[in-house]
UniProtKB/TrEMBL annotation:
GO terms for molecular function: lipid binding. PANTHER family: FATTY ACID BINDING PROTEIN. GO terms for cellular component: cytoplasm. The gene is Fabp6. It is found in: Cytoplasm. Keywords: Cytoplasm, Lipid-binding, Transport. Residues 9-26 form the Cytosolic fatty-acid binding proteins domain. Belongs to the calycin superfamily. Fatty-acid binding protein (FABP) family. The keyword Transport applies. This is FABP6 protein.
């Protein structure tokens, strides 16, 4: 439908690949690692042109919200609660954020939200199904 943006929707965690190797590379403390394992994160995305509001709802009521505009620098927060500045780009319909030693992409594929994070050669993939 016209005017409806590709990313807008609510997505629930469905599965991931390579979680342990990835969080190990990031050096997450073990309590955070266990907390994040198969965590039913619900990701809510509101896209208005190049403006995005990206909210992650964690079980237990914690939420992280990042607001950014494609092509402009923005202050954001990671899953682990670290703050950083990044410029999100759009490449072939994927949102791409590049950091030193870290790359994150997000795309809608087959109606699912597919996020891929790469750090020091370790690739972590998370898939979420659309629920709204």
């Amino acid at each position: 439908p016209k005017g409806k943006m590709a990313f807008t929707g609510k997505y629930e965690f469905e599965g991931d690949e390579n979680y342990d190797a990835f969080v190990e590379k990031l050096g997450l403390p073990s309590d955070k690692v266990e907390m994040g394992r198969n965590c039913k994160i619900v990701t809510e995305v509101v896209q208005n042109g190049n403006d995005f509001t990206w909210t992650q709802h964690f079980p237990g009521g914690r939420t992280t919200t990042n607001t950014f505009t494609v092509g402009k620098e923005a202050d954001m927060e990671t899953m682990g609660g670290k703050s950083f500045t990044a410029t999100v780009k759009m490449e072939d319909g994927k949102l791409v954020a590049d950091f030193p030693n870290y790359r994150h992409t997000a795309e809608i594929s087959g109606g699912k939200l597919v996020e891929i994070s790469t750090s020091s050669g370790v690739v972590y993939k998370r898939t979420s199904k659309k629920i709204a």
